[in-house]
């Protein structure tokens, strides 16, 4: 087996820093040192040496271990820096020319999905782009929430946002907060933590105390929908989230496209009638 590690100097800060981080990711993945070693074509002894700071892993070994532990791209760069190496993955600005083709492709996807709502957000739920279907959902939202940069979580959960018109608000709020907690378990992001603490502290919208549940005509849907009152109608949507496979840019790795499928024929018919 190959052993892409090097003995670390005594008291090496980089080796000591990367070891606990890798151990934490391995434990999160529920993988033993032996299993990780087999996956990475190494040896359990070398994994142990890396985690205890006795060996400093090479750049290639850090990337290999991160790949087998399914570490997010941003955190892979953090592992490399902790091991004394330069970051491997670039982080492009949203308006970077290198992402122009990608932005164009996303715009075409959003437009092609109309009249159904769809938007693209980053890891902090900042809205990159949205189609006209989303603009219909924003009717009645307070202007201060629609001042760029737009944040999808704030717009949805704020009592002056979409919250008053979400008929199953408590269930949908619980779903969104659970989603954020799962993200926080993967990303050591102070801004995301601050956003979570902000939106989870929002008061319920007027009448929210009574809207603890929602009845489902014709039986329960296959997944939890977001049920809204819009244009005097009861509209129901299922959320689908898509991300990029094998991203090699930090920014792209944290993008997600959320599309809203009609959860019942009435919603589908109403949206199509607006075209």
Automatic annotation (TrEMBL):
SUPFAM superfamilies: lambda repressor-like DNA-binding domains. Transmembrane segments: none annotated. It comes from the Bacteria. It holds the Pfam family HTH_3. Residues 22-76 form the HTH cro/C1-type domain. PANTHER family: BLL4672 PROTEIN-RELATED, BLL5781 PROTEIN. This is Helix-turn-helix transcriptional regulator. It comes from Streptomyces boetiae. The lineage of its organism: Bacteria, Bacillati, Actinomycetota, Actinomycetes, Kitasatosporales.
């Amino acid at each position: 087996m190959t052993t892409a590690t090097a003995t670390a100097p005594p008291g090496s800060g980089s080796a000591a820093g990367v070891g606990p981080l890798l151990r934490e990711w391995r434990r999160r993945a529920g993988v033993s040192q032996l299993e990780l070693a087999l996956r990475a074509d190494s040896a359990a002894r070398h994994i142990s040496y890396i985690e205890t700071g006795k060996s400093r892993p090479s750049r290639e070994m850090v990337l290999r271990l991160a790949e087998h532990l399914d570490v997010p791209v941003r955190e892979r760069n953090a592992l490399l820096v902790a091991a004394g190496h330069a970051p491997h993955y670039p982080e492009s600005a949203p308006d970077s020319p290198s992402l122009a083709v990608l932005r164009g492709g996303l715009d075409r996807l959003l437009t092609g999905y109309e009249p159904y709502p769809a938007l693209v957000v980053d890891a902090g739920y900042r809205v990159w782009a949205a189609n006209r279907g989303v603009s219909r959902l924003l009717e009645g939202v307070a202007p201060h929430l629609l001042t760029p940069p737009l944040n999808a979580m704030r717009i949805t959960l704020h009592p002056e946002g979409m919250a008053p018109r979400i008929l199953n608000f408590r269930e949908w709020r619980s779903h969104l907060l659970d989603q954020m907690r799962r993200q926080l378990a993967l990303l050591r992001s102070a801004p995301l933590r601050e956003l979570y603490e902000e939106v989870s502290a929002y008061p319920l919208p007027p009448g929210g105390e009574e809207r603890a549940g929602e009845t489902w005509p014709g039986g329960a849907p296959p997944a939890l929908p977001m049920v809204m009152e819009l244009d005097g109608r009861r509209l129901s949507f299922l959320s689908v989230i898509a991300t990029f496979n094998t991203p090699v840019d930090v920014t792209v790795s944290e993008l997600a496209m959320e599309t809203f499928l009609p959860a019942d024929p009435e919603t589908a018919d109403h949206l199509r009638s607006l075209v």
